[in-house]
Amino acid sequence: MSDKQASFKARWQAEAVRLLQGAASDLQAEAGAREGAATEAEQRVLRWAAIIGARHQLPEIQSAWRRHCILILMVISVLALAGGFTTALTVLGDGTQAVNIPWALGGLLGLNLLMLIFWLLGMLARSDGALLGRLVFQLTHYLPGEHHKALTRAFATLNQRADLMRWWLGLLSHTVWLCAMLGALFGLLWTLALRSYAFTWETTILSADVFTALVHGLSLLPQTLGISIPDAATLVGADQSQADEVRRQWAAWLTASVALYGLMPRLVLILISSIRLLVGLRQLRLQTTAPEWAPLVQRLTPDLNERHVTDPAPEAGQAARIVPVSNPRPGTSVLVAYELTAIKPWPPAELPEHTQCLEVNSRGQRQQSLSALAEARPGTLMVICDARLSPDRGTLHWLVNAGSLAGVTQIVLHNSEQSSDERLTSWHDSLRDIGVDIAHIHHAMTEALNQLGVHNG
Questions:
Q1: End-to-end alpha-carbon separation of the chain, Å?
Q2: Are 408 and 380 spatial neighbours (Cβ–Cβ below 8 Å)?
Q3: CATH fold for the domain made of 307-451
Q4: How far apart are the C-alpha atoms of 56 and 54, rounded to whole Å?
Q5: Model pTM?
Q6: Three-state SS for 199?
Q7: Domain boundaries, the chain
Q8: Tell me, what DSSP letter sits at residue 455?
Q9: Model confidence pLDDT, tens digit, residues 52-104
């Protein structure tokens, strides 16, 4: 799966699977991800998530989550539409009294413009600032089921890292406010079509010049669209005997103001938010180098044993070497009994704190031990091998993988006294070739374990 083919939905699913899985290892999914043709870490992660997601039907749950979000948005938008319609009816009244133009403008546009200013300030401060958007998204947290909650958290986490969450919330908020202004516009047109209204300007402390300046300022945009500007003087001292032509002019001016200053800004911002999201989602990638992804990425790195098992034997100087992990956990250690089915007692008695014991006797246990080491990142890895057996390629490849997940690797050649000199030499040469220091090769298990403070009573 290439970067272009990988969709936001696939990356969203991967983030949700990570949250659901936690630190738990899924050997089947990890093996499947390693066996694919993917060369990039993100591609293997997406394959891993697709395997686990299909098992838990996450694609279907994702679709259901999106439908629930759309339903929530639709319900809130319908309520906003009804609220805007009701506001228009309330502001204009029943027609028995003249409509105060500034009061009507404030009632129809005031809250919308105030929230728009808050959103703009929030965007400048790089916060979401979209109250209605947060309300819509917050309601998704109440969807039932662990998978729904994980998808909600994954959606937020993925988009916040890409600085897209504020655009999502803004898009939701602008959509709701657009519906509110549509409701106000419909209510305004409905009421003006069924009732006859006179318009006036009433004030106690302001002069007529203030109102005239307001009308001329708000008329700049309507005038460019060819909408006639009524004379502000016609409202001073107006009463119910106002001429029909004057009433129609003020009705058109009020309707145009609501459409241009209430509706159009939200439409433009919806378009801007949508374009920003489209561009951002195309560029979005999983941050596989982040600490929360690192253990999984290590486990998904193709195993050297699987990578080379069918290849010809490597020539001298071409053997893979141990590369110690860069961030081991100091003071921790792991003991591994490698193909020692008869070792007694195991695990050793009186293990010190922060010491873990593992056994490796099968292919499945090799994979499990590597997963455990990837999570543990021990400061010291001590592997106990049977010196009577030859150091075959499978063993050496596993040692390279295991040693690359720890700080220091030490090898104990158990039963050295029962092995031939030729075989011990082969062990020493092979271990040196993969990067094990000669000082870290032991022949007496008791002494080696005592270095870690382990009693092998």
A1: 53
A2: yes
A3: Rossmann fold (3.40.50)
A4: 5
A5: 0.63
A6: strand
A7: 59-283, 307-451
A8: B
A9: 999 889 999 999 999 999 999 999 999 999 999 999 999 998 878 888 888 89
